[in-house]
Write a structure and sequence with these properties.
This protein has 109 residues and is of the alpha+beta class. 25% of the residues lie in helices and 27% in strands. A five-stranded mixed beta sheet has the order 4-5-6-3-7. A hairpin with a 7-residue loop joins strand 4 (73-78) and strand 5.
Amino acid sequence: MDFNDLIEVGPAPQKRVSKVADSLEHKMHEGAVIVAYAMHPLRTTTATHIWIHPDGEPGKRFGFVGSFASRGFEKFTSVGDTSYGGEDRNENGWQITINPSSEKGYVVT
């Protein structure tokens, strides 16, 4: 499974240009980190259901539905008022429940 789509590559700001190769900065936004952390236990343990709780900003700035869809997940149910909240499932039997709320921990197994 490829995770390169979670890494944004772009020109480094002037103050960091000397610290990166080819003047390009590689970074992951908060939503991308949440996806990477959510996928890790599914891929490396016997876990089959992960809950993620992104609060407002990661949900607004990152495409959770598209990111999980590119990893074989399909939206099964909806939760809350957001377009991304709900349960996503894939053919392996893995489930990811996205419940937009704060103070519950970004990724819970």
